[in-house]
Design goal:
Blueprint: E1 20-23, E2 31-35, H1 66-77, E3 81-84, E4 106-107, E5 110-111, H2 120-147, E6 153-160, E7 174-177, H3 183-195, E8 201-203, H4 216-222, E9 228-234, H5 241-261
Parallel strand pairs: 2-3, 2-6, 6-9, 7-8
Antiparallel strand pairs: 1-3, 4-5, 7-9
Helix pairs in contact: 1-5, 3-5
């Protein structure tokens, strides 16, 4: 299925869910949680992107287990949480528009028929209806915090597959990612490693944060000068509710420990 010659007036129909779901909007913690790859929804008008249904349960469609961890963290920390409802195959809400995998034609060796030769207008329409509203809600929330001088520490919650197609095993249990400002991420990682010495954790593994491949940290964290980090948890450790709950506790305890040792915005 190709949409090269098809102009879609609207991607979302009235029966489709809104792109953003805000959990615990009144949470009193300094932490603001973001989960850009929580959802697996596909707008009805995109007809499943031409993929077999089973593909939507794989890591290519969403970050397996990340939503469960993020919801548990929101409870433990009393923190607001922004969940993105649509599959990253529709539009990746942690990518700038010009990133090659913002709307991927191929993801981990799987061709996405509904994205092949997608017209520029169709790409922009998805971005405008899903990506922009999600990040607009995050920005407005952070603006309100800034207006009342309420601290904000940005925590993005992700998961990663133990092995990509044709790649080697990824040994890390947890990656803690940052780019220009590593201060909060490094404090978190040091504290996590001391508290969990048997866990394999590292900075900027299995990915790195940069302007071309990421959106949330560069735009909402770095540009605003907020403390921030992006967490990557290996998804085989999040395959059930117990695993998600356990990881949420480990992360929450470390976040609280680091927060009590350092001022929120410096």
């Amino acid at each position: 299925m190709s949409q090269a010659s098809t102009t879609i007036t609207n991607v979302l129909s009235p029966s489709d869910p809104p792109p953003v779901l805000v959990i615990n909007a009144g949470g009193r913690a300094d932490f603001v949680l973001i989960c850009e790859h929580a959802g697996r929804a596909i707008p009805q008008r995109l007809k499943g992107l031409g993929l077999p249904g089973a593909e939507m349960f794989r890591h290519i469609a969403y970050d397996v287990g990340a939503e469960g961890v993020a919801r548990q963290l929101a409870d433990h920390l009393d923190a607001p949480l922004f969940l993105q409802r649509y599959s990253r195959l529709v539009v990746d809400c942690n990518r700038p528009f010009d990133a090659p995998d913002c709307i991927p034609e191929v993801s981990d060796a799987t061709v996405v028929p509904g994205n092949v030769q997608l017209s520029e207008d169709a790409r922009r329409q998805r971005y405008a209806e899903i990506h922009e509203p999600f990040h607009r809600e995050v920005a407005l929330f952070l603006d309100r915090r800034a207006a009342i001088r309420s601290p904000a520490i940005l925590v993005a919650v992700h998961s990663f597959t133990p092995r990509l197609s044709g790649g080697g095993e990824r040994p890390w249990h947890l990656g803690v990612l940052s780019n220009r400002d590593r201060s909060f991420a490094e404090r978190f990682l040091v504290a996590f490693q001391k508290r969990n010495p048997t866990m394999v954790s590292a900075h900027n593994q299995p990915y790195v944060v940069d302007d071309r491949g990421d959106y949330t940290i560069p735009v909402h964290g770095e540009r605003r000068g907020l403390p921030h980090l992006l967490l990557e948890i290996r998804n085989d450790l999040l395959s059930d509710a117990e695993g998600q709950r356990n990881w949420a506790v480990l992360i929450a305890e470390t976040l609280i420990h680091v927060r009590t040792k350092e001022p929120a915005n410096g």
